[in-house]
Amino acid sequence: MISTKSLSRRGFLNMGAAAGASLILPKTGVIRPANAAGPLAPVVEADAHIAFGHTGPTSDEGWTWAHDQGMKAVEAAFPALRTSYVESIPYSADATRIFRQFVADDACMVFATSNYGDFLYDVAKRAPEVAFYECDGRNPMDNLGTYYVAHWYPSYVAGIAAGAMSTTGKLGYVASFPVPSVYSGTNAFLMGARTINPEATLQSIVINSWFDPQAATQAGVALIDAGCDVLFGIMDEAGYLQVAEERGAKAVMWNTDLRRYGPNAYISSIMVDFGPWYVEQVRRRLAGEWMPTYDLLPFGAGVDVDAWGDSVPADVAAKADAVKATILDGSFNPFMGEIKDSKGTIKVAAGQTMTEEELYHWNWSIEGVSGLDN
């Protein structure tokens, strides 16, 4: 069932180029297609329908909730347009039917807030007059752009605090699927932790879901039973934080501030804010300026670390904050080689720095991370 909200503001790094040009990712030379026919036609605000397709429930207090807040920012900025959304869209032919229904309901812009791949692409190809965006997408088209967050930077900063607060040197990670967002998160987190404890390791458990509180809770228990005393993950709820609270461990979360579920365990969270970016894309669509872009919301303006939890020592917070400042001012990039994979093979040579494109598509584990690679 489609939920509709009618008549209702909260920078980003544009990894593409201006309208009318090919989309070129910085530092890589990788070229993405642009709409050769030019921007899509403008839409009168009162006639506009903006649709959102979500992977989880809007009440998850996580990923989907964050996107729903972005939709509310759109409603506040453009009160005459109509919005609609469908939550918990399955990764099946039902997804295609839902996206088709958005088009049938005269949506002029559709946001898929997770990667739906071919379930979305066929719909986009058949509706060239509709602007589509796929979050964490990998296949931009003439009328379909992609967007995501550079979460590996705040994950690295949070890892510094985790490394300082772990007494066992064993970190745990509750993973959804073995996908690039999980590889970049686990790798960055352990790299940060190893600046404090070079012998630290990270064990992952894959639960094959983005939203499964029971499975996430069970994975948290298993990781702590295996000796992990700091947990991290990419889940859309607070399951493993509650486990950490009960077992005297610590945890770093994703998406929102969830500290009330584990005030003694909470270190921080990877915070996301899509509102300004959504408002800008809708503005462009209404104005007749929209063309597909490949946008990565950067550290400090779309994704960040949350305020530190009460149990984080002041000196630990200060050390992590100092590194954060150097990343933000561009004087330090944590993803410089030499970096080896989990099999000991050098993947990034000494002196080389991983590009944003490589970080976005990261699909291998570094030394010390287990549970993802075969």
UniProtKB/TrEMBL annotation:
Q: Name one Pfam family in it.
A: Bmp
Superkingdom assignment: Bacteria
Q: Which residues form the ABC transporter substrate-binding protein PnrA-like domain?
A: 50-289
Can you cite an annotated GO cellular component?
plasma membrane
| Record's keyword terms, sorted | Lipoprotein, Signal
This chain's protein is named Basic membrane lipoprotein
